[in-house]
Design a protein that fits this description.
Strand content: 25-35%
Distance between the termini: 98 Å
Radius of gyration: 29 Å
Shape: elongated
Largest sheet: 6 strands, antiparallel
Length: 216
């Protein structure tokens, strides 16, 4: 004799549907949190990459800062202001004589901008570009390096005074070579390093980088 078939009751179906709904909600929340974390991580990675590129460019410019004797002791090669860094660097090109150009980093509406003048060997052109760079003028096309920056603080290092935030730094002529064997000693009044601190809007801490002036 065939046994009596038994199906699911309404209560069992409701319990099963409720369990499936709870699992679906938990799965959706987990997936949503993963997607949000991925988006935030991608944004932070892009921001970090932008800062690395900006700092790498600054390091290149500071490492190739012009020698004071090349342009004369009466001209500045470095100038720092709140939210602005200007310097004169040497440009090297294959099969061409070395030239000089003015480079300016400026914070404009939360965006770190880099501008550079045309490379030249004419000191009059250099003076014009320097005057424009240190008076918030434009010396060349603007290249955006990073955004969402609240402020940029800059300090310079001198052996004689340590870290200072002088608005204008004009290195003095280098001392005469020492009679002993080896290179001439460093002039303690000439800046030998620059510290750049960027405060990001999305981060609580500042990002600080120190650059040597001239070849390491």
């Amino acid at each position: 004799m065939n046994g009596k078939r038994r199906g699911f009751t309404l209560i069992e179906l409701l319990v099963a549907i409720s369990v499936l709904a709870i699992v679906a909600v938990l799965g959706w929340r987990g997936l949503d949190s993963i997607i949000r974390a991925r988006v935030a991580l991608t944004s932070e990675l892009e921001e970090t990459r932008g800062l690395q590129l900006a700092f790498a460019q600054m390091q290149s410019d500071c490492g190739n800062i012009v020698d004071q004797g090349t342009i004369g002791a009466g001209r500045q090669i470095l100038d720092t202001q709140a939210g602005r860094l200007s310097l004169v660097r040497t440009v090297f090109a294959e099969n061409q004589p070395s030239r000089i150009q003015v480079v300016s980093y400026r914070l404009e509406n939360g965006v770190l901008i880099r501008r550079e003048s045309l490379a030249t060997r004419d000191l009059n052109e250099l003076d014009t570009a320097w005057k424009a760079a240190t008076s918030n003028g434009e010396i060349g096309p603007a290249v955006a390096l990073n955004s969402d920056i609240d402020n940029m603080a800059i300090r310079v290092w001198k052996e004689s005074t340590g870290w200072t935030s002088d608005a204008s730094i004009a290195p003095t002529p280098a001392p005469a070579p020492a009679p002993v064997q080896g290179a001439a000693p460093l002039n303690p009044a000439v800046p030998s390093g620059v510290e750049v601190a960027l405060h990001m809007r999305n981060r609580g801490a500042r990002l600080v980088k120190i650059f040597l002036l001239g070849p390491a």
